[in-house]
């Protein structure tokens, strides 16, 4: 069985999301900050008249927060019950992955990012970390922000 992933970069690392979970890919637009939200919520943007919460994916993964520039992109996806945007450094391409090529993430002493991964796959000459969107939405903090 095959599945298609959109690949993108965050913090110099390559990630993938199932193409069926993606609504659209937008150019960067500045987000309006909100008070009392988790550190990884960059704010909200206008999506054709709707308020779209924007998550700084690097910060959500436990890395340094992104300093967005016009070169960044927002991937609009369904994250739990909420449609939201994910700030990424750049969008790469669409790849086809055999389901048996997806390997479970290794267990490490610091597994903060591992809990957000569905698995890892070697595609061409790079390692792609496939995100588990449901895990990104887990936690009370996200529900309060959105």
Index terms:
146 residues; OB fold (Dihydrolipoamide Acetyltransferase, E2P); five-stranded mixed β-sheet
Describe it.
- With 146 residues, the chain is mainly β.
- It has one domain (2-145): Beta Barrel (OB fold (Dihydrolipoamide Acetyltransferase, E2P)).
- Helix content is 10%, strand content 49%.
- The chain contains 3 helices and 10 strands, in the order E-E-E-E-E-H-E-E-E-E-E-H-H.
- It has a 5-stranded mixed β-sheet with strand order 8-1-2-10-9. A 5-stranded mixed β-sheet has the order 3-6-7-5-4.
Task: Give the SSE map.
Blueprint: E1 2-10, E2 13-18, E3 22-27, E4 41-47, E5 50-56, H1 57-60, E6 73-79, E7 82-88, E8 90-98, E9 117-123, E10 126-131, H2 133-137, H3 140-145
Parallel strand pairs: 2-10, 5-7
Antiparallel strand pairs: 1-2, 1-8, 3-6, 4-5, 6-7, 9-10
Short note summarizing the structure:
The protein is mostly beta strands and 146 residues long. The chain contains 3 helices and 10 strands; from the N terminus they run βββββαβββββαα.
The protein's oligomeric status is single chain
Count structural domains: 1
Annotated CATH homologous superfamily: CheA-289, Domain 4
Reported CATH architecture: Beta Barrel
End-to-end distance, in Å? 35 Å
Q: What order do the strands of the largest sheet run in, or round the barrel if closed?
A: 8-1-2-10-9
Total number of helices: 3
Net shape: globular
